[in-house]
Amino acid sequence: MRLGYPAAAIRAAEAPLLDAGRGPVLMRTAAAGLAAVCRRDLIEARGCVTGARVVVLAGAGNNGGDALFAGADLSRRGARVTVVDVLGRLHPEGAAALRAAGGDIEPLGAESAPLTARAELVIDGILGTGASGSLRAPLDTFIADWQAAASGTGSARRQRVIAVDVPTGVDATTGAVGAVHVRADRTVTFGGHKAGLLLPGGADAAGELALVDIGLDLAPFRPTVEAPEPADLAVGWPFPQPDMHKYTRGVLGLVAGSHRYPGAGLLTTAAAVSTGLGMLRLLAPDEVTAAVLDRCPEVVTEPGRVQAWAVGPGAPDTLLMRRAIIEAENRSLPLVIDAGGLGLLTRPLETTCIVTPHAGELVDLLGRLTTGVPTRAEVEADPVTHAVRAAQAFEGVIALKGRRTIVARPDGSVVAPPPGPAALATAGSGDVLTGILGALLATTAEHRVAERSGPYDQADWSGPATDIAILAGLAVTVHGLAGHRTTHASGLPAAVEDIVLGLKAGSAGAGTGQNDGRRGE
Ligand SMILES: NC(=O)C1=CN([C@@H]2O[C@H](COP(=O)(O)OP(=O)(O)OC[C@H]3O[C@@H](n4cnc5c(N)ncnc54)[C@H](O)[C@@H]3O)[C@@H](O)[C@H]2O)[C@@H](O)CC1
Ligand SMILES: [K+]
C-alpha cells in the first residue's frame, strides 16, 4: 500500500531536520538515490553509463540542487552531462559540484529544446514541492517545444525522462496537471509519496514511482491517499479459512438483472461466484435466474439470510432493491449500490455502504443530494474533488468509476487503485466490479466491514482489510488485473484479438492454399 501525503506534510516533516542543519545531508541522500535510479535505467537501456547523453533541467531551488548533484554523479561516471539553467538561477553548491565533475551548464535559449530532445536521458529538476501557481513563461514554452521536438525526432529509441520528486507542472498535493507539464517515465520521490503522484493526472505524468528514504518521520502526519498495489491483495484479501462453512464464509444477496437487461444479472453473478464466497442468493425475474443457473448452478434463487447486499446492475425491480436496502439498514449489513440502485439514493443510509457511479451517474447523484451540480466534463476533469463532495453529501463511501477509479471517504481521504487496461471500458465491466465487491463484502471475516473515518497508517496495514473503502480499492485492483490478464499487447481484449489474429491467419492461409492448389494442378 502506497501512502500519499500532501506536500505541506512532507515539508513539515523535513523542517526539524533542516533546523538541525541537516539540509545538505538530506540533499546528498536524495541525489544519491536519484543517481542510482538514473544509472540503472541507463545500463538497462544502453548497457553502460559512459558516453550517455544526459540533459539535466535545473530550476532555482532544492529540486534543481538534487538534479545537479545527481548529474555530477553521472558525469563522474563518464556520461556527457549538460545542464539547462531553466530559471536563470541555480543551487550554488549543486552547480559547483556539477562543474567540478566535468559537466556543462547552459542558459535557457533557442537551442535548449532541440538539445533536450536529443538526449538519451532527461532529468527534470525544474520544480518540486516548492512550485506555486501555473508554469510561468518562458518555462511553459520551453517544455512544450522540447516535447514537440522529442516527438518529432521519430527516433526508435525514445528518450527516457526521470522526474525529480514530482514532474514539473504537476501539483504535488492534488495531482492537478497544467496544459503543459513534464511527462516522465519514472519519478524518484523523496521521504514519502506526494499525494499528487498517486492521483489522476499526476499519476499518469509521473510514470513508475521510486521512493528514496531520506529519514523523514511521517508518523505524526496523516496520509490523504492510499494506493493499493497488486501485492496488497496477499495481505488484505479475505481468504477462506479452514474452519469456515458456507454460511460463515459469507452469503451475498444480489438484486441484479431484469427482462430488459438479463445479461447484467449473469455478469454480476459470475463475477461474484468467481471471486469466491460461501453462497450467492440472486433475486431476479425467472428468465434471469434461468440463464444464471445454466452457467452457475451453485447459485440459490430463494430469499434467505445474507451477510451483505449488492443491488442495482441491469435495472432490477425497484421493490426488490428497496427491500434489500431496508434489510441492510435494519440488520447493519454492508451494501454496494450500483447502476439502477443509484436512483433510490436520496438520503444518507443507516449502514456501511458503498456507491459505485460513473461520472454521469455521479452528476445525477449530486443533483439529488446537493445544490450546485457539476457537469459530467467537470467531474471527469477533477474526479477527486467531486467524488469527495459526493461522499460528504452522502455521508458514505463513493467509488467514482473511470480509467482511474477513485474511492472517496467523507473525511476527504481517498483510495486510488491502479488503472486497468483501456479494454475494460466496455458494457458489463461495471457489473463485474459490483460482483467482485459484493463477494468481498460478504466474505470479509466475521462481517466486520465498517467505514473508517480516515486512512490507514502503515502499522494498521497488516491483516485482511475490513474498511469498505480499502475493500473497494482491492476489488478495483483485482478487476484491473483480470483485465490485464485477458488483454493482448495490442490493447484489444484477448477474445477479440484472437478473432482478428484468426482472420489474419485465415487470409494468409487461404493465399497459400491457392498457390499450393495451382502448383498441384
Ligand atoms: N527541503 C529538504 O529538506 C529537501 C528538499 N529536497 C528537494 O527540494 C524540493 C523543494 O525545494 P524548494 O523548496 O527549493 O522548491 P523547488 O525547487 O520546488 O522550487 C522553488 C523555486 O521555483 C520557483 N518557482 C516556483 N513556482 C514556479 C512557477 N510556477 N514557475 C516558475 N518558477 C517557479 C521559485 O521561485 C523557486 O525559485 C523538493 O521537491 C525536493 O526535490 C530534497 O533535496 C530533499 C531534502
Ligand atoms: K521536478
UniProtKB/TrEMBL annotation:
Q: Which cofactor does it need?
A: Mg(2+); K(+)
In which residues is (6S)-NADPHX bound? 62-66, 128-134, 165, 264, 314, 358, 431
| Name recorded for this polypeptide | Bifunctional NAD(P)H-hydrate repair enzyme
Known catalysed reaction(s)?
Answer: (6S)-NADPHX + ADP = AMP + phosphate + NADPH + H(+); (6R)-NADPHX = (6S)-NADPHX; (6S)-NADHX + ADP = AMP + phosphate + NADH + H(+); (6R)-NADHX = (6S)-NADHX
Task: Give the source lineage, highest ranks first.
Answer: Bacteria, Bacillati, Actinomycetota, Actinomycetes, Micrococcales
Where does the record place a coiled coil? none
Q: Which PANTHER family match?
A: ATP-DEPENDENT (S)-NAD(P)H-HYDRATE DEHYDRATASE (PTHR12592:SF0), ATP-DEPENDENT (S)-NAD(P)H-HYDRATE DEHYDRATASE FAMILY MEMBER (PTHR12592)
SUPFAM superfamilies reported for this sequence: Ribokinase-like (SSF53613), YjeF N-terminal domain-like (SSF64153)
Q: Subunit structure of this entry?
A: Homotetramer.
Domain YjeF N-terminal residue range list: 10-222
Could you list this entry's UniProt keywords, alphabetically sorted.
ATP-binding, Isomerase, Lyase, Metal-binding, Multifunctional enzyme, NAD, NADP, Nucleotide-binding, Potassium
Matching entries from Pfam families are given as: Carb_kinase, YjeF_N
- The species this protein belongs to is Brevibacterium pityocampae
Q: Which Gene3D superfamilies match?
A: 3.40.1190.20, YjeF N-terminal domain (3.40.50.10260)
Q: Which family does it belong to?
A: In the N-terminal section; belongs to the NnrE/AIBP family.
Described function: Catalyzes the dehydration of the S-form of NAD(P)HX at the expense of ADP, which is converted to AMP. Together with NAD(P)HX epimerase, which catalyzes the epimerization of the S- and R-forms, the enzyme allows the repair of both epimers of NAD(P)HX, a damaged form of NAD(P)H that is a result of enzymatic or heat-dependent hydration. Catalyzes the epimerization of the S- and R-forms of NAD(P)HX, a damaged form of NAD(P)H that is a result of enzymatic or heat-dependent hydration. This is a prerequisite for the S-specific NAD(P)H-hydrate dehydratase to allow the repair of both epimers of NAD(P)HX.
Per UniProt, residues of the YjeF C-terminal domain are 229-503
How are cofactors bound according to the entry's free-text note? Binds 1 potassium ion per subunit.
Keyword NAD listed: yes
Q: Where does K(+) bind?
A: 63, 124, 168
